[in-house]
Amino acid sequence: MMNGSQQRAANSAQRRTIFIAVISALLALRFALPLEAAPIGGNFDKGTELYKAGRYSDAVDAFDQAIKHRENTQAAQNYIDRIRKETVERIRNKALTGVNKSNWQSKFYFMNEVDGRVHVGISVQEIFERDSTNFRGGALDALHQLAAIFAKAENARFDVELINELNQETPPDPTLTAQQLTAVFSFLSLDSRGVLPKF
After folding, report:
1. What is the rounded CA–CA span in Å between residue 5 and residue 39?
2. What is the pLDDT of residues 70-99, one digit of tens each?
3. pTM score
């Protein structure tokens, strides 16, 4: 059995051991955490909210901060890449003549009603190979969809035009444009009447 002096020394040693253990645990925890903690709510969450609100530049800033603070790093980088890609697509769409391509029914054409007539715009770049009257892959399927719409709407009046999506310093070749229009009108006319030749 310990006397009072020995008991106090043992208690003091035990308190020192507990104190050192607590300090060691706190120091280990401090160095295990990043130096800068993410703000409450998180930069990643803030970035996703800004993205949903269409504030893309602010969203990129928030995602950059999320990466800096090691918060959902891969997902934040994926959002940044997605925003950059979508920005390029929006810039490309602004180069269209008259119609924003994000409102098109497909990448090949758009349709809307103007003064009781159905206006159809067909993308030259999506339908034809460059500077040619040869149809690109997928173009015939898109034109077939249009022809089916024309066939169902017997009494509707359609205005069809070719849309050049590229800003060109020189106007397109009028002969080539006429040939491309003829190819489109011929295909649509024959297909909508069900008399397209089978090859």
Report:
1. 52
2. 988 899 999 999 888 887 776 665 554 444
3. 0.47
